Amino acid sequence: MSFNKNVKNSNLDKLDEMIQDEIRKLKIVRRARILASERLGGYASKWDMYLLLMAILSSALLVISLIVPNEGLIKKVVSGCFSMYTVIIQYYVSTLNYRERALKFHYHHIEINKLKELLQWLSLQGYNFKKKNAKFKVIVEKYNLILQQQENHSEYDFHRAKCKEIRQLDFSMDNIFVNIQPIVIILFILSYLFLGGICNEITI
After folding, report:
1. Residue closest to 103 by CA, chosen among 178, 153, 34
2. Is the dihedral of CA 170, 172, 177, 183 positive or negative?
3. Distance (Å) of CA 165 to CA 70, 81, 104, 153, 162
4. 47 touches 93 (CB < 8 A)
5. What confidence tens digit (pLDDT) does each residue in 68-108 have?
6. Which of 21, 50, 140, 158 lies 20 to 30 Å from 179 when distance is taken between CA atoms?
7. φ and ψ at 69, to 5 degrees?
8. How confident is residue 204, by pLDDT bands cut at 50, 70 and 90?
9. CB under 8 Å to 175, separation ≥6 — which residues?
10. For this UniProt entry, which segments traverse the membrane (predicted)?
11. Which of 65, 89, 58, 62 is nearest to 188 (CA)?
12. Which of 181, 157, 5 is nearest to 93 (CA)?
């Protein structure tokens, strides 16, 4: 009788350890989801600003080409290339759905937090092993189902969530591409001003 009781207590202790491990895992995943939401939202905000600036600049160059008589060929080529680049980038960014994905990650971390709270509540209950284990499995199954229905966070988000004290740098193509846009815009402006000035005698 004493042996069976010790076995049950041992199983219950192991289950409690599993619950605590799952709680720790959910905390990390939830934080990674929050960071992913913030990261994607940041991309969306930057693209909104850059695309607005590019649209204004593209329109301004078009107006100049219509108003200024005998505008140089190079300026017209640069202006046309910039307009094409702006249209292509607008289409490309629209396919990435940064804002929508950020919102999904936001709602997802709320769902994960609810499951984490259920596990914390379960760890405090004085159920027997069988009942506690059954409830634990149900919560884990819900968690796995939620993961299958949502885009996964990146390794960058996971490492930031896991190692809060270590500063992580974002070398993803998404981050690099959005942050080189000011350079691209400046290069187009310089090309329009200086190349256009050098080749001003060539007109169409």
Report:
1. 34
2. positive
3. 60, 45, 27, 19, 9
4. yes
5. 777 778 888 888 999 999 999 999 999 999 999 999 999 99
6. 158
7. -75, 150
8. very low
9. 39, 43
10. 49-68, 74-93, 176-195
11. 58
12. 181
Contacts of 144 (CB under 8 A, 6+ apart): none
Q: 33 is written with which tokens?
A: 């989801």
Identify the band that residue 198 occupies on the pLDDT scale cut at 50, 70 and 90: low
Domain boundaries, the chain: 2-68+98-172
Question: pTM of the full predicted structure?
Answer: 0.83
**pLDDT above 50 for 203:** no
Is residue 159 predicted with pLDDT exceeding 90? no
| Residues 35, 49: Cα–Cα separation, whole Å | 21
pLDDT above 70 (res 9): no
Q: State the Cα torsion 149-154-160-166 to the nearest 10°.
A: 160
Task: Say what the pLDDT of residue 1 is.
Answer: 47
